[in-house]
Amino acid sequence: MRTVGVLGGMGPAATLDFMAKALKAGEGASEQDNLRLIVDCNPKVLDRNAALGGEGPSPGPALAAMARGLEAAGADFLVMACNAAHAWQGEIEAATALPFVSIIEETCRWLGEREPAGRRIGLMAADAGLKSRLYQDALARAGLAPVTPRPEETARFMDALFAFKTGDLGPGPRAEMRACAKALIEAGAQVILAACTEVPLLVGAGDLTVPFVDATQILALRTVAYARGEPLPIRPPEAERLRRG
């Protein structure tokens, strides 16, 4: 079984959620049949939203260093329990020789195989993820139609997200996230996609009137499949050129 290297800590609760889902999905007949995860839970990674907004330095060097550390520790491939940080996927891939499994590509492929063409997918995503068009472009390639929030709804989402990240576990952030999902549904979304790894910790299928898709769960399932031998994604040639200088 392949060893999984996890770039995490963005934030820590979301990383723990991914680990729990991956371990649950990979349960075997004995303890030794479970996945081996090597996790760098690093909450010191610089703010992705500030960086993409031109208000802070890039987290790319830190993410690249994490990837190199996981490779040195024995990982066979990499995953990352943060959607917005995939804006720096190129720097991660250039830093190591390991395949990188993208939560964006895996989720959009999963949706494309199950949803009819043109299905409207509502994106519950952080500002950085929306600005970098991570899901918008990937969904379009899969033949699906992204529904993005209005600026005021994104601001509401970010307030709830940061409240949760800084320790507010009360009903306020949950209510705000449900309101954000409702606004997407009212805008025409036929499916709600948790395109931020904190979202499944605040909203669930029982809160909504349309299907709810958890990208973290999809990444966990695909991580298990790759760990158990499914052919890994092919590294892009550009990543190999950059790695070799």
Descriptive notes:
This protein is of the alpha/beta class and 245 residues long. It folds into 2 domains: 4-102 and 218-244, Rossmann fold (3-Layer(aba) Sandwich); 104-215, Rossmann fold (3-Layer(aba) Sandwich), CATH 3.40.50. The protein is 48% helix and 12% strand. The protein is built from 11 helices and 7 strands. It has helices spanning 12-25, 48-52, 60-73, 89-95, 103-114, 127-131, 134-141, 151-165, 171-186, 215-227, 237-244; strands spanning 4-8, 37-41, 77-80, 120-124, 145-147, 191-194, 212-214. The strands form 2 sheets. The chain has a 4-stranded parallel β-sheet. Helix 1 links the parallel strand 1 (4-8) and strand 2 (37-41). Helix 1 (12-25) packs across helix 10, helix 4 (89-95) crosses helix 11 and helix 5 packs across helix 10 (215-227). The longest helix is centred in the C-terminal third of the chain and has 16 residues, at 171-186. The chain is globular, with a radius of gyration of 17 Å. The model has no long low-confidence stretch (mean pLDDT 95).
SSE blueprint and pairings:
Blueprint lengths: L3 E5 L3 H14 L11 E5 L6 H5 L7 H14 L3 E4 L8 H7 L7 H12 L5 E5 L2 H5 L2 H8 L3 E3 L3 H15 L5 H16 L4 E4 L17 E3 H13 L9 H8 L1
Parallel strand pairs: 1-2, 1-3, 4-5, 4-6, 6-7
